[in-house]
Amino acid sequence: MEGPLKPRPANSSDFQFGAVATETIENALLHLAQQNERAVKAAAGRMGSFRETRIVEFVFLLSEQWCLEKSVSYQAVEILERFMVKQAENICQQATIQQRNKTELQNWRALKEQLFNKFILRLVSCVQLASKLSFHYKIVSNITVLNFLQALGYICTKEELLESELDVLKSLNFQINLPTPLAYVEMLLEVLGYNGCLVPATQLHATCLTLLDLVYLLHEPIYESLLRASIENSTPSQLQGEKFISVKEDFMLLAVGIIAASAFIQNHDCWSQVVGHLQSITGIASESIAEFSYAILTHSVGTNTPGQQQPTPHKAARALRTAASSNT
Prior knowledge:
globular; 16 helices; Cyclin A, domain 1; 70% helix
């Protein structure tokens, strides 16, 4: 890790995040970086397959309806992602073992059908579990969940609801309190504030939340464009796609891309300084930050932005890459 934190000026009271000691922030950032490194190394070929737009939108809307914090919605998506990947892997393993036995193959198909039939229940359980991990007082009650499921036409008892939560917990070995991309974004914003970033962190934070929502909702298109840009080829091979899975699980890279894109939107003139800070803090190359920012900007403002007030993504890309080159 490069770029130690600078002492924070005593008169910068406008920064609302800066209530924690510098040493604590550095330790927390190092801990997140280590967790991220382990997650990237452990990324499996099937990870990411359940971060589909419709699923993410359902979780976001449900969290909003239940007045949950943004962190809860991201946590719920990640819990659901890991649970469904684990379930899919288990089904595939059973199918491989049982493929020569027709009777057992029917049992495998029954398990697959059961997984599909209980998907909504599992999704709601993931949201409920995520709400219990939040420091906020708002926890989704069993009554609220049962009423919601009933409104959708799902008949479910309180016991079945509790069993569903327990099923998710057991499947993930009770390891559900994992950092989300928001944790990385907020930690880096905290460090940027201490290091004298010209764009106010509170201002960046609001834009970061919007862009993070966007990345979750358009997960596949954004990462597909990033893959094509990284290999400079519009038709990636299957092997290239599989190797790129680890990038999709790199939350530190996602966080710097989100912050850099937010800085570009908020204050184009300060973008170079923000990228310089992010590169120094994380060690991620400025060119990588630029590419990710461009992918996010392309999907947020489109390829044909009307008018002259805002730069188009193509102009943004040139500006990003020029600024990145000047920082290397």
